[in-house]
Amino acid sequence: MSNPDVTYLFDPLCGWCYGATPMLDRLSASGARIELLPTGLFSGAGARPMDEGFAAHAWANDQRIERLTGQAFTQAYQRNVLGIRGTLLDSHAATLGICAAGLEDSSRRLSALKAIQRARYVDGRDIVTVEGVAAVLADAGMADAAVMLKKPSETLLAAYRELVGRGRALFQRLHANGVPSLAIIRNDAPRLIGSNALFGSFDNLVAHIAAA
């Protein structure tokens, strides 16, 4: 596969996006250039309270993702994230943290996303507050991003708006059904690669990209 340019549409609170991470790693290792674009799916109007019904639905879905991908959803996550009432499913802070990590070097967005996903789904940590995300970034060796997140500059906020705006615009242009989604853009014409390709074999994903 000649090094393609791939755009990855995601939300840091999407369990399926966490499940797709090993495939993203393989794609990156193969030489593909991956641009991460958040869609803000679970932020703003998309945020919702963590109630009993949603927690049960999420856990059942997470078990399916674990069986399919091997990505761990631990008891610590079930107890300390899904089990805490009164919190929000809100990806604003996590998305802003990812933007902060990649402000000077966009390649750090993937590292920040992986650290945030692991903190939530494996360690059962808070990633829905600025304080929680900042602590995760600092522990992952991104103290500069943690500092920026706690006191966001207009430069960071503008970058956040631009990134999420681009993600939402591409999502709508592709008529994507959800995240995660991949897009190949050739000659300014984006082509959608459905999320199913992220959960099969790597060879199948490569074939989809080559054919797009």
Automatic annotation (TrEMBL):
**An MF annotation (GO) of this entry:** oxidoreductase activity
Q: Name one Pfam family in it.
A: DSBA
Question: For the DSBA-like thioredoxin domain, which residue ranges apply?
Answer: 8-197
The protein, known as: DsbA family protein
